[in-house]
Amino acid sequence: MCKMINRALYVDRHLYYFVRLEGDGSVFNKVVNGIDLTVTFNAFDAQKLLEEQSFDALGVHLSTNFCYYVAVKFRKKNKRGPIIIHSGLAGDEFVKRDLKNMEFPYDMLIPVSIGELLVDHERRLEDIARDFKEFEK
């Protein structure tokens, strides 16, 4: 579907404690399933990373504050890179309609239950990398 994804940025407020403990305080990097995954929990750091670095793909959890602006900034810089949205409301037709009405740039909307958000973080990172790998098929 698209070129190989080597580097991806993922923004999710639910990973706050994980990034604070495992990363440098606001950003965490790890290679997972062949993808150099950069994770942050806030849009401010995500936008700064997008200015300073290049990413092949973007993932955001819809409940993260200002994730719309991160997606717009990514799409302006990378027209062909996939944008994945995770949300507990992904199956809700109202959410899909609202994303369309506000012209939220995304390529895939994936449901994520609260239980999936609370699993151990290593497994969560593997799930995120797996979702990005779907675009390489």
Describe this protein's structure:
With 137 residues, this protein is of the alpha/beta class. The protein is 39% helix and 23% strand. It has a six-stranded mixed beta sheet with strand order 2-3-1-4-5-6, with helices on both faces. Helix 4 links the parallel strand 5 and strand 6. The protein is globular. It starts with 6 loop residues before the first strand and ends with a helix.
Q: First CA to last CA: what distance?
A: 6 Å
- The percentage helix is 25-40%
Alpha-carbon Rg, integer: 14 Å
According to DSSP, the number of beta strands is: 6
User: How many helix segments?
Assistant: 6
Task: Tell me the series of helices and strands, N- to C-terminal.
Answer: EHEEHEHEHEHH
Keywords:
single chain; 137 residues; alpha/beta; 6-stranded mixed β-sheet; 6 helices; 6 strands; globular
Characterize this entry briefly.
39% of the residues lie in helices and 23% in strands.
Per-chain topology:
Blueprint: E1 7-11, H1 16-22, E2 27-32, E3 35-40, H2 43-52, E4 57-61, H3 67-77, E5 83-87, H4 93-101, E6 108-111, H5 114-117, H6 121-133
Parallel strand pairs: 1-3, 1-4, 4-5, 5-6
Antiparallel strand pairs: 2-3
